[in-house]
Structure formats: C-alpha cells, structure tokens
Amino acid sequence: MDNERIIELETRLSFVEHHINEISDVIAQQAQQIDRLQQINEKLVARVRELAESGKSKTGVDEKPPHY
User: Fold this and answer.
1) How many CA atoms lie within 13 A of 31 on its CB side?
2) DSSP string covering the chain, please?
3) Binned average pLDDT, 10 residues per bin, the chain of 68 residues
C-alpha cells in the first residue's frame, strides 16, 4: 500500500472511532434517563393505585347521590 492510502484509512478509522465514542456517550445518557423515567413511572403507578383504592372506600356503587 502506498502512503496516501494508509493515511486515508487512518483518517477514516479515526473518524469512525470518534463517532463510536459519541454514540456510546449518548447511549449511556439515555440509559440513565430511562432509569429515571422508570422510577417516576413506578411512583406514578403506585400513586394511581393508592388513589383508586381510596376512592373505592369512600364511594359505594349502591349509594344514592346527595340530592335525594
């Protein structure tokens, strides 16, 4: 191989390595964000269940509305 071809391949390899590192960083950030969103989702699901349970105990299906 001639010197120009080696330089071209090294340049391309450097470019690819740089972009692989950038993509890796983005993936790590997204993984952290997914973890945070999963925690928030779990809290919201628990809160909705809590509210649904408290709503069941306060209102009965057979109760008459207050205007009767």
Assistant:
1) 6
2) --HHHHHHHHHHHHHHHHHHHHHHHHHHHHHHHHHHHHHHHHHHHHHHHHHHHHHHHH--TTPPPTT-
3) 92 98 98 98 96 74 69
Query: Token match 């071209």: residue?
Result: 8
The CA distance from 39 to 57, in Å, is 28
List the one residue out of 63, 40, 42 whose CA is nearest residue 55: 63
Residue 5 tokens read as 């071809």
pTM beyond cutoff 0.70 = no
Q: What is the DSSP letter of 59?
A: -
DSSP E strands in 1-68: the ranges are none
